[in-house]
Amino acid sequence: MKRTMIQIGPIFAALRRHKMATLLIVLQIALTLAVVSNALFVVKTRVVHLSRPSGTDEAHLFAINNQWIGEPDLPHIDAQIRADVVTLRQLPGVRDAFASQAYPLESGGGGLVFIKHRVEQTTTAQLALSYFADEHALSTFGTTLVAGRNFRADEIGSLGPYDKPAPAAIIITRHLADKLFPDGAAVVGQHVYLDDAHASTIIGVVDCLEGSYAGSSTRSIDEDTVLLPARYTSPDESMVYLVRVQPGQMDALLRTAPAALMAQNRMRLISPEDGVVTLAQARAKGYATDRGVAIMMAAVCVLLLLATAGGIVGLSSFWVGQRRRSIGVRRALGATRGDILRYFQTENALIVGIGVALGVALGIAGNLSLMTHYELPRMPLWVLGVGALLLWALGQLAVLGPARRAAAVPPVEATRSV
Amino acid sequence: MPCGHGVLRYYGSLAWRSVHRSKALTALIVLLMGCGVATCMVTFAVFRAASADPIPWKSGQLFAPQIDNYGPLHNWKGEPPNMLSYTDAVALLHAKQARRQVLIYASKWTVMPEDAQRLPSSQEGDAVSHDFFAMFDAPFRYGGGWSASDDEQRAAVVVISSALNQKLFGGTDSVGREIILDAHAYRIVGVLDDWDPKPRFFDVSSAWFPFSHPRQVYLPFSRAIDLQKAASTNFFCSANAPSPDLPTWDSILRSECVWITAWVELPTQADVVHYREWLRNYAAEQQRLGRFDWPPYVRLSDVRQWLDLPLNGVVPKASALSMIVSFSFLLICLVNVVGLMLARFMRRAPEIGVRRALGASRGAICGQFLTEAAAIGLAGGVLGLLLTAIGMAGIGHVFEPEIARLATLDASLLSLTILVAVATTMIAALYPTWRAAQVQPAWQLKSNG
C-alpha cells in the first residue's frame, strides 16, 4: 500500500505532461459511465416491467374476439352470450370460461373507470381499469380472493352500449384497495362511486390481476383493476370470451372452441387471423417493444464498455511506448517489476476515479432529463455505483496488458536512445 | 509536388505505410468508427421512417384545429384535447372558413359477402365528409369521391380501398355495384388506388396505429352519424373525471366528449392567420354563451406539428430514446478516436521531425494527417455500412415490426453513413493533427542525434 501511495506524486507530474490524453480518457470514462448507467437502468426498468405477473394462469388461458353481425338487438345478444359461455364451459378440456370486453396483456380494449369515495368529492377520482365479469371470472383467470366473496349468478346484469357501469357489487384488486384505502381499513363492505348516482359495495378483494393495458407502456394503474358484474351487449363493438383449459388441452381447444361458437350461431365474426389469441402470444406481442429496447440497450452497453476498454489499452500502450526510457531509468535505479506494474495500475485507477466522479454527475443529469421526457423513475444511486465499479474493474483489466509490457522493460533500456 | 493529385497520392502512400506500421491502433479506430456510425444509422433509419412527412407537397397547408372544451380543470396536462366534440366539429364544418374542411372519425364495419358461403369480415374505415379525398390527394383507381349533396342527403355511398376491391370483386371496376355494410346496402362510387400514407396522419388521433390497420372503407360522416355509428377506437370525455351519463345517441352528440378529428386546408399564410382568428372568436363566442367558463384556448397545427403532439404520440418513444443512446455512443467513440489518433500521430513524432527538417511545411503535415484521417474514416464508413446492413436485418426485434419494415437502407442512408464516418473522423483528427504540426524539426533531430 505504501509503495503504491508513494507513486502518486510522480503520476501527477507525468500526467501533467500529457494533459490532453489524460483529459480524453477522463472524458471518455465520464461519458461511458453516464450512458451505461442510464442504459442499464432502462434495461432494469423494462425487464421489471415485462416480467410482472398478470395474476392469471397465463399458460392455460386464451381469448376469443367475437364480433356480432347483422345488428342483433340487445336482448338477443344477452341471450347469445349466456348460451355461448355454457357451450364453452361444456367443451371437454375446458376448465372454465366467461365473457368480458377485454383480456389481460391485450395492450388495449379495457374500460377506464374513475372511482370516488363520495359523490361530492372534489379531489381527483382514482383511475382504474375494468373487466366485465361474472361468477366464473375468478376461476377462469385463476386469481384468488384474499378477502370477501365472489359474485353470485343473480348479481350479473346486462349492460348496453349507452349504459354506464355502476353495479351494486364490485370486486377490486389488492393493489387498488391499498390506493383507495391507504390507512389499511377493512375494504370489504366499503362503498365507492363509479358514477354520480349509485354506490357500489366492494364485496371482494383479489390478490393480483393486471388490467388489459399492461404492456403498452409503463402505466401506473396496470394493477388497479375492477371487476364489474355484467355481460356487455353491444351490436357494434366486439367482445371477448376468456377460456381456461386443462393442461395439455390448449392446442385442441384453440380450434374446437371457436368452431363450437360458430356452430351455436353463425351471425358472428371470429377473425381467422387474430380472432383467437393465447395469453402467451399476447404477452410476447404486448412486451415486444420492452424486450427490444432492453436488448438494444444491453448491446449498446457491451459495445460501449468494449470501446472504452479498447481506448484505454490503446492510450496506455502508447504511454508505455513513450516512457520506455524513463521506465528503464527507474528500473536501473532499483524499482522492481512490481513497482512499475503498480505505477501504471495506480495511474489508471486515478484517471478512472476522476472520470467516475465526473460521470456520476453526468449520469444523474442524464437521468433527470430522461425523467422529464420518458416515464422513467429516478435512478437509484446503486446503479451508478455498479457502473463505476464495472468501469474501474474494466480499466484495471485493460491496463494490465500494457502495464505488464512496461514491467518487462529491462533496466538496460536506460542506456538506449528513444 | 507538381500538382494536387500528386500530393494526395503521396499522402496516400504515406498513410498506407503508417497503417502497416500501427495495425492494431488503426484497426481499433476503424472498428470504433464502424460501430459508432452503424448504431447511429440504424436508429436514425427507424426514426426517419417513424417521423417521415406523409404528404410533403401539402403538409404546410393542412391544419388540424383543437378547441379546449374540457377546460383547465379537466384537460390533460394543460393540453387541449386532440379531437373535437360533435358540437364543435359540426360548427367548424358549417362555418366553411377554409378552402376545404373535413371531419373524420374511425369506425369498424362488418362487410357481408354477396356469396352466402363466404364468411363476413370486419373492416376498419373512416367516416369522412366529402372534401376528404381532394384535401388529402387520395388517388382513385376507379370512380371518385362523393359530392357535397351526397353529404347533405346522407347518401348510402362508399369509397373502398383497392385491397377490399381485390378481395370482394377480384380487382375489377366495381363502381356502381353494391356492398352490404352492417346490414345496409351502399353504392360504391370510388375505388382508391394503393394509398396508405405512413404515418396515416389524418386519423391518428381517432384511430391509433398510425403505421398499421389501413382503412378499407370511407363513407359519409353525416350518414354514419344518422346510423348512430359509434367511434370504434377513441372516445374521451375528460382526462380525470368520471364519464357523464350518456343514455342515448343524442346525449353523445350533445356531450363534451371528443371523438372527431377536423382538418382544414389553408393555402396561404393569410388564410392561416384568418382561420386562427376565427377559431379564437368561435371559442370566445362559446365562452360568452356560457358553454366554456374559461378564456379561449385553441390551437392550429400543420401536419408536422400535429404528428409531433405528445397526445398523438406518432414517433415511438423507444425510437427517440434509442437515437439519444446511439448518438451518445458515437460521441464516446469519437472521444476515444481522438485519443487513439493522438497516440498514433505522436508515435510518429520522429518521422514528422524528419519531414519538417527536410522542408515540409506545417500545412503539408496537416494535409498528410488529415488525408490519413479521411482514409481511416472511409474505412470506418465501409465497415459501418456493413454493420448497418446487419443491424437493419435485426431491427424488427427491437422496434414495432410495422415501423421497422419502413426503415430501409437506401442510397441516401448509404451516402449519409459514409459522409458521417469521414466527417466525424476528420473532426476527431483535428486536434491530433494540430499537435503533430507543432512538432519542431530541430528538436526531433537533436534528440535523435
In short:
The complex is a heterodimer of chains A (418) and B (449). Chain A is an alpha+beta fold.
How would you sum up this structure, described in words?
The complex is a heterodimer of chains A (about 425) and B (about 450). Chain A is of the alpha+beta class. Chain A folds into 2 domains: about 1-50 and about 290-415, no CATH class; about 70-265, no CATH class. Chain A contains 12 helices and 13 strands. In chain A, strands 3, 4, 5, 6, 7, 8, 9 and 10 form an 8-stranded mixed sheet that branches. In chain A, strands 1, 2, 11, 12 and 13 form a 5-stranded antiparallel sheet that branches. In chain A, helix 3 (about 20-50) runs antiparallel to helix 9 (about 290-320), helix 3 (about 20-50) packs across helix 11 and helix 4 (about 75-90) runs antiparallel to helix 7 (about 250-265). The longest helix of chain A is centred in the C-terminal third of the chain and has 37 residues, at about 335-375. Chain A is elongated and about 105 Å long. Chain B folds into 2 domains: about 5-50 and about 315-449, no CATH class; about 60-310, no CATH class. Chain B has a 6-stranded mixed β-barrel. Chain B starts with a helix and ends with a helix. Chains A and B meet through helix 3 and helix 9 of A and helix 2, strand 2, helix 9 and helix 12 of B.
Average pLDDT over all residues of chain A = 88
Strand arrangement, largest sheet of chain B? 2-3-8-5-7-6
Largest sheet of chain B, in brief, is:
6 strands, mixed, barrel
Q: So what's the overall shape of chain A?
A: elongated
Most extensive interface: A-B, 63 and 65 residues
Radius of gyration over C-alpha positions of chain B, nearest whole angstrom: 31 Å
**Which sequence of SSEs, written as H and E, runs from N to C of chain B?**
HHEHEEHEHEHEEHEHHEHEHHHHHHH
Given the helix and strand composition of chain B, which structural class is it? alpha+beta
SSE topology string of chain A = HHHEHEEEHEEEHEEEEHEEHHHHH
Count of all domains of chain A: 2
User: Rg of chain A from C-alpha positions?
Assistant: 32 Å
| Multimer state | heterodimer
Helix content of chain B: 40-55%
Terminal Cα span of chain B:
29 Å
Number of alpha- plus pi-helical segments of chain A: 12
- Low-confidence runs of at least 5 consecutive residues of chain A: none
Span of the ends, CA to CA of chain A: 32 Å
Structural class of chain A: alpha+beta
Any idea how many domains of chain B? 2
| Overall mean pLDDT of chain B | 88
